[in-house]
Amino acid sequence: MRTWLGLLAAPFLVLGVQGADYALIQLACATGSDLPLHLVSAAALLFSLAAACLAWRRWRETAHAGDASYATGGARPAFFASMAAIVAAFCALVQLMMWFPQWWLPACR
């Protein structure tokens, strides 16, 4: 489960946050507060970072220096866990970069 959070949930969350931010623009303009936009972006960033940490822990549990045999079955969990950590970390970076304009540009511009 820790691997799938990083591989699937984090990318879908980044796309969902982008849609949610577009939907919350009207609320931000009506109330004059950017707080809902910042809360959604912060929650998504924290989730992506948590998914990356969980996948990294899973990789540390499954990665081991194996013998010289060519059996690849044991390397599969470590590979997926490392890919999940990379994807979730990249999603956290993308989420952070999508959050930067909210800090500098007003919502109702």
Total helix count? 3
- Structural class call reads mainly alpha
Mean pLDDT: 87
Proportion in helices: over 70%
Order of helices and strands: HHH
Number of strands: 0
Q: Give the overall shape.
A: elongated
Strand share of the residues? Answer: under 5%
- Count of the separate structural domains: 1
End-to-end separation: 42 Å
Q: Which stretches are poorly predicted, pLDDT < 50 over at least 5 residues? A: none
Integer-rounded radius of gyration: 18 Å
List keywords for this structure.
109 residues, mainly alpha, 3 helices
What this model shows, in words?
The protein is an all-alpha fold. It has one domain. It is 80% helix and 0% strand. The protein is built from three helices and no strands. The chain has helices spanning 2-31, 35-62, 76-104. α1 packs antiparallel against α2 (35-62) and α2 (35-62) runs antiparallel to α3.
Short note summarizing the structure:
The protein has 109 residues and is mainly α. It is built from three helices and no strands. The relative contact order is 0.22.
